[in-house]
Amino acid sequence: MNNLTELEVENLRHLIGGHGLVTKKLETYAQNCQDAELKIILQRDAQAAKQAQQHLMTFLG
Fold first, then answer.
1. pTM confidence score
2. Within a domain: residue 47?
3. Can you give the residue range of the structural domain that contains 1?
4. Distance separating alpha carbons of residues 17 and 43, to the nearest angstrom
5. Does residue 28 fall inside a structural domain?
6. Which residues contact 29 (CB under 8 A, 6 or more apart)?
């Protein structure tokens, strides 16, 4: 892996935080959703955002 510049690390942290926020929002929406089909979609999207966040974290170290 290449050494990251300070700007790249800052940008990665920003992206990681954004994915974390999206994950939490989608999980909350899914918990409050009455439509079963939409609930599944929201849960699946929340899981995808969480996986993307975890993948991005691998670039930090």
1. 0.89
2. no
3. 1-32
4. 19
5. yes
6. 42
Query: Using CA atoms, how far apart are residues 57 and 26, in angstroms rounded to an integer?
Result: 20
C-alpha 57 chain-centroid distance: 10
| Percent over 90 (pLDDT), the chain | 92
Residue 13 lies in a domain: yes
Instruction: Locate 16 and state its tokens.
Output: 């990681």
Helix (H, G, I), strand (E, B) or coil at 33: coil
Q: Does residue 33 contact residue 60 with C-beta atoms inside 8 Å? A: no
Here the tokens at position 24 are 């939490």
For residue 54, pLDDT over 60 is answered with yes
CA 45 → CA 1, 16, 38, distances in Å?
Answer: 29, 16, 11
